[in-house]
Amino acid sequence: MRIGMLTGGGDCPGLNAVIRAVVRKGVAEHGDEFVGFRDGWKGPLEGLTMTLGVPEVRGILPRGGTILGSSRTNPFAVEGGVETIIARLEELGIDALIAIGGEDTLGVAAKLHERGVRVIGVPKTIDNDLDATDYTFGFDTAVNIATEAIDRLHTTAESHHRALIVEVMGRHAGWIALHSGLAGGANVILIPEVRFSIERVCAYVESRFKSQYAPIIVVAEGALPDEASAPGGINSGEADAFGHARLGGIGDWLAREIEQRTGKEARTMVLGHIQRGGTPSAFDRVLATRFGLHAIDAVHDGESGIMVALSGTDIVRVPLSAAVAKLKTVDAARYAETEVLFG
Ligand code: F6P
Fold first, then answer.
1. What pTM did the predictor assign?
2. CA gap 89, 47 in Å, rounded
3. Residue spans of the chain under pLDDT 70
4. Do 103 and 217 share a domain, yes or no?
5. For residue 242, what pLDDT is reported?
6. What residue's CA is closest to ligand 1, atom 11?
7. Residues annotated catalytic, as ranges
8. Domain check: are 232 and 212 in the same one?
9. Most buried residue among 17, 78, 144, 290 by CB atoms closer than 10 A?
10. What is the tally of structural domains in the chain?
């Protein structure tokens, strides 16, 4: 078969491991040919392709990023975009497409499936917010990076009797904040799903200082104070092609408020793209490789409109529509169980 492959959305450690597994198994077991589409949906839209065979995937298992490149191009936001993609796939003789991405990339894949394109999805995102899979690859690596940062910040915060705020990624879902905050022993964890009171945060900060330790506050970029704390709201920015605002600023806002309200020095570290870069953890390499091996099986089983997913320790197939119907966010009970550790 002739199979197209693309990676879309924010990059994520483990993308190359998926690409390698798909190509290695496709070539070894089925004699498949692959066409690499560059830069997400921009590739099939603009005809940007690259050779993708066993030589191209040698040595890429531990490499972060994606050899295919990525973008947040949304073909449904481009006039005639979908028709162009369908025509391009036909012209290149593509029998099936493997799309590796998060909610946006797989949302496009689900709609293309409805238009008759044979497409298989592979879930990726450091945010771990895709539904219908227990975990996405990239999340474990991001949590490890954030946890290491928190570990390091504890010692310097204590030396200087400062409050340190760590702003991590997560627009709508607080999984990275929750897991890295728990693993790193943060004193307060703030997530987008639950509005926070700045007064309560300052009370935690003060009680932590009283016990002779310095507070570490982990905040997801999409976390918001309640209306009483910040009338009018904060954190609105320019939007991408899928309509997501570019976030940032909650960490600085927290530092200012904590300083003013408690009189203690507070500083903010924005971890940003460090969480997405570099080599994947062993867990993510294994998960990404298994996703790739199962994705190529799904293609040869004649599937379309499905996504490979992790259920317990098994890789299963779920409808793409189920994966993109809603985001998997942190529920209130899951957050509440950690609150006893705050302060
Ligand atoms: O979607 C993954 C993600 O890492 C979000 O947590 C974050 O808001 C976003 O990407 C940042 O994307 P960009 O690099 O396009 O600004």
1. 0.94
2. 9
3. 231-239, 245-248
4. no
5. 77
6. 10
7. 127
8. yes
9. 17
10. 2
